[in-house]
Amino acid sequence: MSHNTFGHLFRVTTWGESHGPALGCVVDGCPPGLRFSEDGLQHWMDKRKPGQSRFVTQRREDDKVKVLSGVMREESGELVTTGTPVSMLIENTDQRSKDYSEIARRYRPGHADYTYDVKYGIRDYRGGGRSSARETAARVAAGGLARLVVPNMIVRAALVQIGDRKIDRGNWDWSQVDANPFFCPDAKMVPVWEDYLDTIRKAGSSVGAVIEVVAENVPAGLGAPIYAKLDQDICANLMSINAVKGVEIGNGFGAAEISGEENADEMRIGPDGKPVFLSNNAGGILGGISTGQPIVARFAVKPTSSILNDRRSVDADGNEVDVRTKGRHDPCVGIRAVPIGEAMVACALADHYLRDRGQTGRLD
Amino acid sequence: MSHNTFGHLFRVTTWGESHGPALGCVVDGCPPGLRFSEDGLQHWMDKRKPGQSRFVTQRREDDKVKVLSGVMREESGELVTTGTPVSMLIENTDQRSKDYSEIARRYRPGHADYTYDVKYGIRDYRGGGRSSARETAARVAAGGLARLVVPNMIVRAALVQIGDRKIDRGNWDWSQVDANPFFCPDAKMVPVWEDYLDTIRKAGSSVGAVIEVVAENVPAGLGAPIYAKLDQDICANLMSINAVKGVEIGNGFGAAEISGEENADEMRIGPDGKPVFLSNNAGGILGGISTGQPIVARFAVKPTSSILNDRRSVDADGNEVDVRTKGRHDPCVGIRAVPIGEAMVACALADHYLRDRGQTGRLD
Amino acid sequence: MSHNTFGHLFRVTTWGESHGPALGCVVDGCPPGLRFSEDGLQHWMDKRKPGQSRFVTQRREDDKVKVLSGVMREESGELVTTGTPVSMLIENTDQRSKDYSEIARRYRPGHADYTYDVKYGIRDYRGGGRSSARETAARVAAGGLARLVVPNMIVRAALVQIGDRKIDRGNWDWSQVDANPFFCPDAKMVPVWEDYLDTIRKAGSSVGAVIEVVAENVPAGLGAPIYAKLDQDICANLMSINAVKGVEIGNGFGAAEISGEENADEMRIGPDGKPVFLSNNAGGILGGISTGQPIVARFAVKPTSSILNDRRSVDADGNEVDVRTKGRHDPCVGIRAVPIGEAMVACALADHYLRDRGQTGRLD
Amino acid sequence: MSHNTFGHLFRVTTWGESHGPALGCVVDGCPPGLRFSEDGLQHWMDKRKPGQSRFVTQRREDDKVKVLSGVMREESGELVTTGTPVSMLIENTDQRSKDYSEIARRYRPGHADYTYDVKYGIRDYRGGGRSSARETAARVAAGGLARLVVPNMIVRAALVQIGDRKIDRGNWDWSQVDANPFFCPDAKMVPVWEDYLDTIRKAGSSVGAVIEVVAENVPAGLGAPIYAKLDQDICANLMSINAVKGVEIGNGFGAAEISGEENADEMRIGPDGKPVFLSNNAGGILGGISTGQPIVARFAVKPTSSILNDRRSVDADGNEVDVRTKGRHDPCVGIRAVPIGEAMVACALADHYLRDRGQTGRLD
């Protein structure tokens, strides 16, 4: 039982606070022989990096990953994993601790301030300490390795809803996702969200969002019945992301509303003689085990509780106070949750892949 | 990594197939000194027991629990736990294996038949084998012990939606829940669901449902940040129930649609000088840690895929076939998921309670 | 963290007390497709069974194993595993609880009576309850399955020392082991031990022993560096056996006394062009990873503390008392530890085998 | 299953290679409110630090620990833990990678070179990579925190045997241990070992050793029956140290040689009315649970296989070669194992302490 570790064979332990000197992770169980470059890893980090548009926090961090162990450098300059734990470190540079001094003893509504104090009796209040979404940088680094574990696997995500504005799924175009600041697959929705979020941002308010993650080229047979269902582990990974309050697989809550005929995916024999599914309401998972279809998961992110307006609260001394978040502001934290969701799904799939194939594939 | 175990300090391992001689569980980590009677345990079993109304499967099982270890009997006749593992066994009696022979090599759409075969290359097809919801009887037995771990904790659940028929939350009355065959808290909805499900049942079809679980008297401070968030562990437990495709805490997916001002629960000082929350959008959990408010979780159950109508599928030999489930039929498996959901939430809370308080409270 | 479970991918959970209705285990992670018969399993049980000579306890138990789940019966009558958890149950029949009533509140020196009471505040005193060596019957059953996991693996053990009487290793003959009541590989030592143990037995005393376990046909590459060293996991498994106070691999404590030149096993290229070791001081493990040589482990069993002579002790009420064990008596519990040691080593090796090869070998 | 993590509630994950930029650990589960200084931590590091006498490796490392997370600095300058993971980093400075280029493809007898290659197909050969004893620096840092978890606990160790030269236990004087380069508690043995090791060192050879660890002020009741026995977890922790081939608790292998009367510790009522033991053959553990007496464990370290003399071996290309270790040389690695053994025992005890008391003691 490790509160800061997830996964079993592809096992990620993260550490670090928002305003400490650094944060990072140890990826234990990474198979030997995976090749990657720091630039390749950085590609994923940059997707999550703060300060990239006016719709996300203006904190400036390079989020450069240092790989401290578990690899050897090849003549090509690439790194190759050796099977030993990969330690990765990301320095904190733009910390501005003074911004937070006012809330050292005040509980921001909707934040973990109160519950950390109840649980631990001590709390690193600077920037939210350990409960800061900054912790997720380490997850994205780990996800960069996880993506390499399952051959040819592609894991990508998109924002499908901000507040009550949902995309038109008929307009879904993956090539749009990286072409706008929202990871939005529906080009027509982009200006709508821009206007909407500008209003939210100027009001010092915030709003929630829904993200959809799709994993392709996941072999059939991953997962396990009963208490290590693939959907269970994917959902647990997504629920561990800050501010996530709901998760679903395939039709999800929508499955409750339809009949068994509508929901159960029928099968036929495909042109290659192999079974094919005629639909994917199951989101690629039956009985906790992957079917070979794309894995589809969605998760809901609540509006950040750091808003620039007064809220009623209490302090650690038992006084009633009004709290208004200062410091930097994220009108929709759901946006930056897109690469984090990808990383967490990739990690779950890498983990289950290794459970079936073993940690070192070299023995015959 | 144990695929048939859940929990860390309150640790449940289940075993058994639908049509084997028995099924059961081992509860490891049950603290010493818990007192209970077999009758008390049976109360929870009876809530889940099949055959109690025309809306659930007609399989007849007594579901009597035998407690084989981990307890001593007191003079009062009650059992008291000793801290060693509690093994509980439930015999299968009404098995009718012949009902299933036709589908030994056919994959029922929406079932785990195909994925089990892909994964294991062998499958106990009788009644779904290990993937049968019958496995959940063992969870309810374990939940009966879990309820005793956290002092005064009350965990109860209700069905809030069948198909697209949702209850009116204004009519919520816990006393109604055990007074109708649906665990419905809204008396006015009961006749609506009766008519609706009769239609479904007679059509040989099925429909999904949504269940809400509420846990009261959960002390503040349970849970852990990051990868053992209380909401994460509750959701993982619920996602492990057969046919569950979505889970949410507090406002859940609804939180995505509202603003930070609307969603974050404000605080004041209560009459006793202690902090109180003015609302519970968080579902009793902030930053992965309980606030002391009721824990509120919901989960969506898909319509059972065992329907009495022909569906297109394939068999293990690569033939296209039509499959129609014979055997007994559950028009809405969501109904019997109510006591299972309670059990899984109780287990998650017992587990986290022990992580904070330790497994044996006797040392000073 | 499960106190009654061991192993990670081949995962064994045991339950049961000496004088409860039954004891057993759940083996989770057993790969699908293993074939075995109840008779084959019983062969190992019978090696451990009590009452087989005057040198072990006279309790009479059939120790018949019932396999309750995780298997299907083939037409040949053999059982084949399906990949789901295998639950095995052994009934207790010859319990004689009254023998133990006198020591309900008295702490037998050298037993776990005092520490269980300190820890749990309650104790099943009948026959030692959970701390009875009877629990090990479940391990032997699990070991019977573990033996099937690694192809061609042979795990066998022998008693090499009783008290200070050690065998002559030059006389080692495996074929002798099952030909005497001591599992002794040195035929010349058998009469010596008979006389010695008769004296011990008649004096109501007891004596310790050392057991050596050898596993052959273990492929090179099993194990893991640092905290899951193969020697570490083997030793942990052996130390978990009741009354074991020391464990060693290869030269063990003897390695402390010799030079690096003497201890390090040199290598050459064998006739088949593959590396061969010229000695096996390492006991088949280097850096925590198997070399392909036989795995050699030894463990020391203390003399049982159940002796028929008065010993000074205290009771739960704070009185000084004299305690003399009544009930049945094992002059050398080390004898019956031989099949238990085999089982625990087999389980460790099966577990590590699966970590490398994956839990389901069917996917390509 | 994490190959580079140990412990359950006090959970240590280490990372790093001998010749990478750094190594370190993440301690997860450290309770909040522990106070320590970097100097206090460094005290333990310095005991293990290389280059402190002519009897250990001449590598020069400062082994300064940087604490990167999980703490806040108090006005006094002390650090206080917050309950979040403590990441500690130690830079490698004196690496001399060129020393090792010759053995990149040659297998040093007695080393993990061959087995790493078999398992992973790739190996960081520089200084032994991950299998270097340099990894243990991270353990000593973790042990520095573990010592603070159990109130008033003292864990200390001494070297009791080098080669076949054993100390006279009658001369045991803890105050001598830090007064000589061997951590020897017997002042009379020091000159004997000096002469002996000088001979070994000059011959380019090496020799093994035995270390005894004693933990005092360990409360009764720690540990767990069956598969998390306190002795089992201590032994597993000690067996995970490089080059350890045997472990024992209390009388250990010696218990095999004596009678039940001699071995079982009798009890009486002490002057304060509480039970006292009249001897400690059990090494402070009965039935896997601490008795309140000092915990006594011993472990055997094999002679290092890095010797300056030619040994027969093979290379990765299938050639027979002679291998002679160059680089720096440790004639008796057992010496530096003394502080490592202390750290590993402290970690095991901290872990079990938290299992009983819970991870956060603040809730009432």
Structural account:
Four copies of one chain form a homotetramer. Chain A is of the alpha+beta class. Chain A has one domain (5-360): Chorismate synthase AroC (Chorismate synthase, AroC fold, 4-Layer Sandwich), CATH 3.60.150.10. Chain A has helices at 38-48, 113-120, 136-149, 189-202, 230-239, 260-263, 337-357; strands spanning 5-6, 11-16, 22-28, 35-36, 65-67, 71-73, 79-81, 86-91, 154-162, 165-166, 209-216, 244-249, 267-269, 275-277, 285-286, 289-290, 295-301, 311-314, 320-323. In chain A, the strands form six sheets. The first copy, chain A, has a five-stranded antiparallel beta sheet, with helices on one face. Chain A has a five-stranded antiparallel beta sheet with strand order 10-9-11-17-12. In chain A, helix 1 (38-48) packs across helix 3 and helix 5 runs antiparallel to helix 7 (337-357). The longest helix of chain A is centred in the last third of the chain and has 21 residues, at 337-357. Chain A is globular and about 70 Å long. The two termini of chain A are 33 Å apart. At the A-B interface, strand 1, helix 2, helix 5, strand 12 and helix 6 of A face strand 1, helix 2, helix 5, strand 12 and helix 6 of B. Strand 12 of chain C pairs antiparallel with strand 12 (244-249) of chain D, so a sheet runs across the interface. Chains A, B, C, D: Pfam families: Chorismate_synt. Chains A, B, C, D: It is an enzyme of class 4 (lyase). Chains A, B, C, D: Its EC number is 4.2.3.5. Chains A, B, C, D: Its cofactor is FMNH2.
